[in-house]
Automatic annotation (TrEMBL), chain A:
GO terms for molecular function: 2 iron, 2 sulfur cluster binding; metal ion binding; NADH dehydrogenase activity. [2Fe-2S] cluster binds at residues 92, 97, 133, 137. Belongs to the complex I 24 kDa subunit family. This is NAD(P)H-dependent oxidoreductase subunit E. InterPro entries: NuoE-like, NuoE_dom, NuoE_N, Thioredoxin-like_sf. CDD domains: TRX_Fd_NuoE. NCBIfam families: nuoE_fam. PROSITE patterns: COMPLEX1_24K (PS01099). PANTHER family: NADH DEHYDROGENASE [UBIQUINONE] FLAVOPROTEIN 2, MITOCHONDRIAL (PTHR10371:SF3), NADH DEHYDROGENASE UBIQUINONE FLAVOPROTEIN 2, MITOCHONDRIAL (PTHR10371). Gene3D superfamilies: Glutaredoxin, NADH-quinone oxidoreductase subunit E.
UniProtKB/TrEMBL annotation, chain B:
It is an enzyme of class 7 (translocase). Keywords: 4Fe-4S, Flavoprotein, FMN, Iron, Iron-sulfur, Metal-binding, NAD, Oxidoreductase, Quinone, Translocase. Residues 340-385 form the NADH-ubiquinone oxidoreductase 51kDa subunit iron-sulphur binding domain. One of its GO terms (biological process) is cellular respiration. Its cofactor is FMN; [4Fe-4S] cluster. This is NADH-quinone oxidoreductase subunit F. It comes from Pedobacter cryotolerans. The keyword NAD applies. The lineage of its organism: Bacteria, Pseudomonadati, Bacteroidota, Sphingobacteriia, Sphingobacteriales.
Length: 175, 458
């Protein structure tokens, strides 16, 4: 569901625009729309989600209609149309992972974080959701965390606890 | 030990770097192709090799290349399909992570053969770490003169780029992939025209799987005829198999096509048997889209002969008693696994991933998911089982792309071989929530089963 939230006005830094320019240079002249998916990834890495105002800015940059950006962002599962926790734990929920305990891992995460799938923890740090096969079925159960999509494989309840605790501590250190 | 053509040097430290890859003979195929062969001669070697597409459909690669239209003054493209999203398949990720230069070398040779001056590797967006690995490897190759302008002084120019997807299984379908690469939703195109005529930006385009492209390297190094000597019959060469589920040693294995399935599952060289001392109940041999088989039909044909890991042998018996090699995603189910639950899980996957263009797929996958959900959770009726068969038949063959078939086949085959387990879920709705149907006689050797049936009938 596209639930549009109020957002701050978005300005892309010149460093970011430089990256956009490099991406656009990979395609023939006039085919700059090909840069849309990679650019949306960069935007999400920067803002934590692809906000409506950011999407409008991307449309402006690529010289395409805003609807062309919305329809793409809403089609692909990686783009967040609403703000999420700082760390989104995406656990594979597909068959092969379930053969070796992925469902138990998801139950455990839900319990440990105290929020349902898709919700954000009160401190704004975590969300989690089930996603489809991540092409790592031989190392199941697995989860990934954006924006760099680091993989965590052969998960156990203990390793998930350690991971979540480490992310929390890392946060404390930064503050 | 089986021959290794792709993963021979996988355990060499630093093989992910250009330097070590070169020391192990890397980029010889580029030298040979660009300096001593014409593009058509490269295509000819690939034809001779008998290589069949490793992305799932098994279409002969050399033939596909020879279909590429070559109108004067129009750009041609090679696009590598690294979308790898078929449940049970993770070989391309493995190859790109550990030997990225094998793919890049293959891309250069294949691009040269097709006359492409710009090529793209479309990698599923979740594989950001692999995207970084490939970009680093491309930069290394370019700095060393294997990419860019006037490669090896031959006058051939090539630029290679990595394109991330956005998270959508359907973008593995080649025309959806091209739409996505053009910055659009991943809706498969109506064919014809085929990409060989009108692909990326309307130009002639070849789309090939990561493993198909990497296989071009040994084909050019050793010659197509040598490659064709490996394997069995029309299943030439080696294949990367992704093994997952309840196995002692899940992982990626390079096998010579023709290896007995039994040896693949049980020998220590490969999967090492079923985990935790359990028995094998069923397998999905080629990724989630291919028919599921009970253990006995996995290991042997209905006539009792051993089944082999090859395109022909896995499909022996047709859909009645066979399956398909598909993408080589080999999923093993032990005696504690519930076939109904897994079938529901896969149906949910296809419903989630349907692009929604055709109503039989959009609506049908939703029905399959819903009905299987109620069977799994104890609310099913006996008539639901036939309803599932009916819905899957109505999807099959009535859609723009093969995702519809891919959603229908697993359901139809699960009911074909495990109907008693589905019926048990209806008869024992409470018990089926807390316990499993078990292995029943799915592992009983075929010959015995046939005898039993004869006795029952007499
Ligand atoms: C729904 C669907 C998903 C697919 N996913 C992939 C994929 O992830 N990787 C792949 O190489 N081919 C995939 N294919 C097959 C491609 O359409 C195409 O046949 C293949 O990339 C051709 O390359 P090959 O001839 O080298 O196998 C998929 C097909 C369908 C219908
Ligand atoms: S079969 Fe399904 S996925 Fe394929 S085009 Fe039709 S709706 Fe889309
Ligand atoms: S099923 Fe979980 S990674 Fe493939």
């Amino acid at each position: 569901m596209l639930k549009v939230e109020e957002t701050q006005p978005v300005e892309f830094s010149s460093a970011l625009v430089e990256k956009f320019d490099e991406i656009v240079s990979r395609y023939p002249a006039g085919k700059q729309k090909s840069a849309l998916l990679p650019i949306l990834h960069l935007v999400q890495a920067e803002l934590g989600w692809t906000s409506p105002l950011a999407m409008d800015k991307v449309a402006e940059y690529l010289n395409i209609e805003p609807i062309e950006v919305y329809e793409v962002a809403s089609f692909y599962s990686m783009y967040f149309l609403q703000p999420k926790g700082k760390y989104v734990l995406e656990v594979c929920r597909t068959g092969p992972c379930c053969l070796v305990g992925a469902e138990k891992i998801m139950d455990h995460i839900e319990h440990k974080l105290g929020v349902k799938e898709g919700e954000v923890t009160a401190d704004g740090l975590f969300s989690w959701r089930g996603v489809e096969c991540l092409a790592a079925c031989g190392y199941a159960p697995v989860l990934q965390i954006g924006p760099d999509y680091t993989f965590y494989e052969n998960l156990t309840e203990q390793s998930v606890d350690t991971l979540i605790d480490n992310l929390k501590n890392k946060q404390d250190l930064r503050q | 030990m089986g021959r290794k053509l792709l993963l021979e040097h996988i355990n060499v430290p630093g093989i992910n770097t250009l330097e070590v890859y070169r020391q192990k003979g890397g980029y010889r195929a580029v030298e040979k192709a660009l300096k001593t062969l014409t593009p058509d001669e490269v295509v000819e070697e690939v034809k001779k090799s008998g290589l069949r597409g490793r992305g799932g459909a098994g279409f002969p690669t050399g033939m596909k290349w020879s279909f590429l239209a070559k109108p004067e003054g129009v750009a041609r493209y090679l696009v590598c399909n690294a979308d790898e999203s078929e449940p049970g398949t993770f070989k391309d990720r493995y190859l790109m992570t550990h030997i990225p230069h094998a793919l890049i070398e293959g891309m250069i040779v294949a691009s040269f053969a097709l006359g492409a001056k710009t090529s793209y590797i479309y990698v599923r967006g979740e594989m950001m770490p692999q995207i970084r690995i490939l970009e680093k490897a491309i930069a290394e190759a370019k700095a060393a003169g294997w990419l860019g302008k006037n490669i090896l002084g031959t006058g051939y120019d090539l630029e290679l780029y990595v394109q991330p997807g956005g998270g959508a299984y359907i973008c593995g379908e080649e025309t959806a992939l091209l739409e996505s690469l053009e910055g659009k939703r991943g809706n498969p195109r109506i064919k014809p025209p085929f990409p060989a005529i009108a692909g990326l930006y309307g130009c002639p385009t070849v789309v090939n799987n990561v493993e198909s492209i990497a296989a071009v390297v040994p084909i050019i190094n050793d010659g197509g005829d040598e490659y064709a000597k490996v394997g069995i019959g029309r299943s030439t060469g080696t294949k990367l198999i992704s093994a997952s589920g309840n196995l002692v040693k899940p992982g990626v294995y390079e096998i010579e096509l023709g290896l007995p399935v039994e040896e693949f599952i049980y020998s220590d060289e490969y999967c090492g048997g079923i985990a935790n001392g359990k028995r094998l109940k069923a397998t999905v041999a080629g990724g989630s889209s291919v028919p599921i088989l009970p253990a006995n039909l996995t290991l042997k044909y209905a006539n009792g002969e051993p089944r082999l890991m090859s395109y022909e042998s896995l499909s022996e018996g047709g859909f009645a008693t066979g399956t398909m090699l598909g993408s080589g995603g080999f999923i093993a189910f032990d005696e504690d696994q519930c076939i109904v639950r897994n079938t529901w899980n896969f149906a949910r996957f296809y419903h989630h991933e349907s692009c929604g263009q055709c109503s039989p797929c959009r609506e049908g996958t939703g029905w399959l998911e819903k009905v299987l959900h109620r069977l799994e959770y104890g609310h099913g009726k006996m008539s639901d089982i036939d309803l599932l068969v009916d819905v899957s038949k109505k999807i099959e063959g009535n859609t723009i792309c093969p995702l519809g078939d891919a959603a229908a086949w697993p359901v139809a085959s699960a009911i074909r071989h495990f109907r008693d387990e589905f019926e048990w879920h209806v008869k024992e709705p409470v018990k089926s929530l807390s316990s499993n149907y078990g292995i029943a006689n799915y592992a009983v050797p075929i010959e015995k089963k046939v005898e039993e049936v004869k006795q029952d009938n007499s």
